[in-house]
Structures are given as structure tokens and as C-alpha cells.
Amino acid sequence: MSIEHPFSPPDPEQARARRVHASLFRIAERHAATDEQRLRQAHPSVIGPHEAVRLVSFLLSGAAQLDDGEPDVDQADITAALSLVPLVRGELDALEAGLLAMARGRGMTWQEIAFGLGLGTAQAARQRHERLAERSATALD
Fold first, then answer.
1. Average pLDDT estimate for 57-84
2. Separation CA 131–CA 55 (nearest Å)
3. What's the CA gap between 123 and 108, in Å, rounded?
4. What is the rounded CA–CA span in Å between residue 1 and residue 116?
5. What single string gives the DSSP state of each residue in 86-139?
6. I need a surface site. Which of 36, 80, 93, 96 has the fewest CB within 10 A?
7. Measuring CA to CA, how many Å separate 91 from each of 71, 84, 125?
8. Cα–Cα distance for residue pair 140/125, rounded to 1 Å
9. Confidence of residue 13 (pLDDT cuts 50, 70, 90)
């Protein structure tokens, strides 16, 4: 670990890690402060693919505990979660592509978007958007 002084360049990875924490705190504080706000993006009775994958992963890792009487996670549960990963990845790609389009529609520059994504250049952000748009269009075919 290097000692920081006023003349050392900032470490991009450390800065990004700080932004991730600050981002989660900001969004939680502003848009997910209540149970109702946090649950508005979830279906009330059907688990979403990303929730299912995350739940199985959390249970397997010990980050979440089984309730009394709940069956252990078995190989079929793991296979089911793995089967959902491509769908989750596609949904995340579509969400990112939409968020990028909305950011541009709100007047954000490609450089500002690149900063948010942790990319070094505006060109990298544009190229990412193009790849996501292409993948999303291919997935719809």
C-alpha cells in the first residue's frame, strides 16, 4: 500500500470503490429509504431471475441463512440458478443500454458517462453503448 501525498496521482480503482459506496448510499437514501420504495421494482409474488440467482448464491456462500424447515440448496437449485444467468446478463445489458440512452437524453456527455462507468474515455463509453445496443438487438431477433 502506497502512502498518499498531495503530489501522487489518484488511484483510479480506489476512487471507483469510494464512488460505488457513495452511489449505493445516495440511491438508498434518496429512493429506497422505506420498504415500499425498495419493493416498488420487485414483483409482489414472483421472484425475478436476478433475485433467484442472487438468493442461491447468498445461501451457498453463507451470506444468507436458511429458515427453519427450508430445504438445503441442492444441485438442482444450483443448476436452475446457472440456467438463469444468461437471462440475467441480457436483462442487465438491456438496463445498461437504456440507462445510457436516458443519460444522453438528459444531456450527459460521453465523458461524464465514461466517468460513471469507470471508463477512461468518451470513446470507450460510446463503444460500450454500441456493443450493448448491438447485443440487445441480436437478443431480440
1. 95
2. 29
3. 14
4. 25
5. HHHHHHHHHHHHHHHHHHHHTT--HHHHHHHHT-S-HHHHHHHHHHHHHHHHHH
6. 36
7. 29, 11, 19
8. 23
9. confident
